[in-house]
Amino acid sequence: MRQRKQLGKFDILQYMIMAALLVFMILMLTRGNSKVVPIEDIRSKMSAIPSVSELSEKDMSDAGKVFSFDADLVDEGIYYRVDDIMNVNELLIVRIEDDDNRGAVHDAMESYLKTKTESFDGYGTNQFGLLSNGVITEKGQYLFFGVSEDVLEWESTFLKSIR
C-alpha cells in the first residue's frame, strides 16, 4: 500500500506564492482594459452625437478653470459646454498617463459635480436632476465626465471608442 505524502511548510509556501503570482498576472492583464486612442478619433465619434454637437467646444485651459485643476496635468482631452449659466450640459474626456495626475483630475471632477449639484438644489429642478445623474468614469488612462439627458449614450459611445 502506498503511503500518502504530507505537504510540508515549504510546499504550502510554494503553492501560496504561485497563487499570488497568478492573481497578480490576471490583475495586470485586465487592469485598465482600454487602448490609447488618438483624441481626434474620440472627438469625431462624440461630435457625431446630436446632443454633443449642440455644445461649444472649449480648450483644456477652460476645463481647468471650470473644474479647478491644472490643465498641464492633462495629456490630451476634449471639452464641450454651453456658456449659458442655466444650461448644465457638459462633456469632458481627458487622457492622463500619470496615475497621480489622473487621481487629482478625478477628484476635481467629483468636487465640481458636487458643488454644482448643490448650487441648483432647491430652485433648478431640471438642472438638479441632470447633475444628480452626472457620470464620472475612469477607464485606463481616460476620465469621462458627462452631464446631459443623453449622458448614458455619451458614456457608451466613449467606452466603445477606446476598446
The fraction of residues assigned to DSSP E strands is: 15-25%
Count the DSSP helices: 7
N-to-C span: 58 Å
Question: Would you identify the regions where 5 or more consecutive residues have pLDDT less than 50?
Answer: none
Q: Count the beta strands.
A: 5
**Helix-strand makeup class:** alpha+beta
Main sheet overview: 5 strands, antiparallel
Average pLDDT works out at 90
How many domains would you count in the coordinates?
1
Q: What coarse outline follows from CA principal-axis ratios?
A: elongated
Oligomer: single chain
**What percentage of residues falls in helices of 4 or more residues?**
40-55%
Structure description:
By secondary structure, this protein is an alpha+beta fold. The chain has one domain (39-161). Helix content is 52%, strand content 16%. The protein has helices at 9-30, 39-47, 50-53, 60-67, 99-120, 125-132, 151-161; strands spanning 56-58, 76-81, 90-95, 135-139, 142-147.
Q: How would you summarize this macromolecular structure in one to three sentences?
A:
The chain has helices at residues 9-30, 39-47, 50-53, 60-67, 99-120, 125-132, 151-161; strands at 56-58, 76-81, 90-95, 135-139, 142-147. The chain is an alpha+beta fold and 163 residues long. A hairpin with an 8-residue loop joins β2 and β3 (90-95).
